[in-house]
């Protein structure tokens, strides 16, 4: 876990794969955790990082009240990493539970910089009517970006499935839903599903 040089209250988790060679361009996976705000859950992706050479960046907001003024896109950590490593222009986004809200806000804000998105068990998708995805930024966002929703709880899977048609009607033709083993926690099954999906776009 590291502290941002520009915003000391902001911590982030960074994993640089050993397989990444000096001077080699790398893809970046940005992870937004759930309500706990603990970023080290992204450790379940270390095998994927080593196999693919992708850098892992987890945004830690357990001290959210102290750093609520920092934009979640994701601000200083991304700037610091870009200054130290050769990062490809487009990156991957991963969100778990409430972190899915940050992921979609990120997608809306700068879809031209995003390769693909995975959302695990996010309440964001439970009801299209409860979340205003049709604001100006989403109308302008690139709707060709591939999106995977994974779910383990039956109720989450049901709501995801009901919502997919609405998202497709809104233009997100590439959206998918995948059921995985496990409940509402970041686990190896979810990581495998997301890794397989991201590999399609490396």
Q: What does the largest sheet look like?
A: 8 strands, mixed
So what's the CATH class? Alpha Beta
Strand order of the largest sheet: 1-2-4-3-5-6-7-8
Relative helix content: 25-40%
The assigned CATH architecture is 3-Layer(aba) Sandwich
- Termini Cα gap: 26 Å
CATH topology: Rossmann fold
Following the backbone from N to C, one meets helices and strands in this order, namely EEEHEHEHEHEHEH
Average the pLDDT over all residues and give the rounded result: 80
Q: What's the overall geometry?
A: globular
Number of domains: 1
Tell me the CATH superfamily: Alpha/Beta hydrolase fold, catalytic domain
Number of helices: 6
The low-pLDDT segments are: 125-130
Computed CA radius of gyration, to the nearest angstrom? 16 Å
User: How big a fraction of the residues is strand?
Assistant: 15-25%
> What structural class should be given to the helix and strand makeup?
alpha/beta
Query: What is the number of E strands?
Result: 8
Q: Could you outline the blueprint of secondary structure elements for this entry?
A:
Layout: E1 2-3, E2 11-15, E3 28-32, H1 46-52, E4 55-60, H2 76-84, E5 91-96, H3 99-109, E6 114-120, H4 136-140, E7 147-151, H5 154-169, E8 175-179, H6 188-199
Parallel strand pairs: 3-4, 3-5, 5-6, 6-7, 7-8
Antiparallel strand pairs: 1-2, 2-4
């Amino acid at each position: 876990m590291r502290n941002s040089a520009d915003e000391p209250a902001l911590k982030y988790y960074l994993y640089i794969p050993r397989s990444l060679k000096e001077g080699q361009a790398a893809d970046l996976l940005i992870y937004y955790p759930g309500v706990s705000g603990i970023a080290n859950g992204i450790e379940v992706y270390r095998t994927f990082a080593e196999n693919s050479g992708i850098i892992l960046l987890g945004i830690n907001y357990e001290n959210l009240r102290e750093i609520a003024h920092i934009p979640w896109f994701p601000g200083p950590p991304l700037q610091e990493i870009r200054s130290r490593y050769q990062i490809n222009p487009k990156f991957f986004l991963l969100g778990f539970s409430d972190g899915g809200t940050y992921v979609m806000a990120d997608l809306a804000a700068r879809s031209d910089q995003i390769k693909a998105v995975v959302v695990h068990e996010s309440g964001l998708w439970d009801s299209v009517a409860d979340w205003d995805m049709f604001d100006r930024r989403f109308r302008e966002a690139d709707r060709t970006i591939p999106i995977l929703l994974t779910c383990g709880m039956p109720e989450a899977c049901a709501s995801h499935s009901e919502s997919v048609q609405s998202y497709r009607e809104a233009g997100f033709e590439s959206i998918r839903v995948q059921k995985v083993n496990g409940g509402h926690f970041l686990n190896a099954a979810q990581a495998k599903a997301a890794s397989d999906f991201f590999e399609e776009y490396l």
